[in-house]
Write a structure and sequence with these properties.
This protein is an all-alpha fold. It has 2 domains: 1-29 and 160-225, no CATH class; 34-146. Helix content is 61%, strand content 0%. It contains 11 helices and no strands. Helix 4 (75-89) packs parallel to helix 6 (118-134) and helix 6 packs antiparallel against helix 7 (148-158). The longest helix has 24 residues, at 3-26. It is globular. The protein starts with a helix and ends in a 5-residue tail after the last helix.
Length: 225
């Protein structure tokens, strides 16, 4: 390997390490970074450190979450709702299991009529990955063994040209696969030109950089073999 090629490889490796260090230091982005949703209705606010609505009755978590998801809610609002639901669900293993079980059944039941619901598959896929990012080792995790990203890809195949869903997939693939992450990032950024709320989310701050910069750093940090 000549010195020029070695330098390019070294720069690429440093970029990857910086992206992953940012991810680790700031916490999992599906949980620790709130999604901007304007005045849209979601679950009661709760900080990822559990500050906030501590009096929320977890027995209502599945009912309240489904009420929001079933009301033709935009993808960004679904992301924020499922983020808050995950923070609440970690406090009660029964509530966590009930919620993901209901979302799985809801998605599966959309198939027999040959009108598979892309948003239903997205919801269970996104919740799965949020659980995986937030449920600690040794804790019961009802999403164990599930592949949330594959479910979101299924949703994307059923719902073409959805930049908000591409944004969700880009966040989910920060640690790979790199080619898929690049594709999701490009489509999300292209779609943001006509989606002001998505553009606002891409420009929001996450650990001293914008979300767009985080996504681009991970994309540009792909090491060429």
């Amino acid at each position: 390997m000549n010195s020029h090629a070695f330098s390019r490889l070294a720069i690429s490796i440093v970029a990857v390490l910086l992206a992953f260090t940012t991810f680790a230091h700031a916490g999992p982005p599906l949980i620790c970074h709130p999604i901007e949703i304007g005045q849209a209705k979601s679950l009661p606010w709760v900080d990822w450190t559990h500050r906030g609505s501590t009096d929320y009755d977890l027995k209502n978590l599945t009912r309240d979450t489904l009420a929001i998801l079933d009301s033709n809610t935009p993808v960004l609002v679904r992301m924020e709702t499922l983020r808050r639901a995950t923070i609440y669900a970690r406090q009660d293993p029964r509530a966590a299991k009930e919620l993901i079980t209901r979302l799985q059944a809801r998605a599966a039941s959309s198939d027999p009529a040959a009108h598979s619901d892309a948003l239903a598959w997205f919801d269970v896929g996104y919740l799965t990955e949020a659980y995986k990012q937030w449920m600690g080792k040794g804790e019961p995790n009802p999403a164990a063994g599930l592949d949330g990203y594959s479910l979101v890809k299924r949703a994307l195949s059923l719902r073409s040209q959805d930049p908000e869903m591409e944004f969700a997939a880009a966040l989910m693939t920060l640690r790979g696969p790199a080619s898929a992450h690049q594709d999701h990032t490009q489509k999300a950024m292209a779609g943001a030109k006509s989606d002001p709320i998505l553009a606002q989310n891409l420009g929001s701050n996450f650990n001293h950089q914008t979300i767009a910069e985080l996504l681009m750093t991970a994309r540009e940090g792909e090491v060429k073999q």
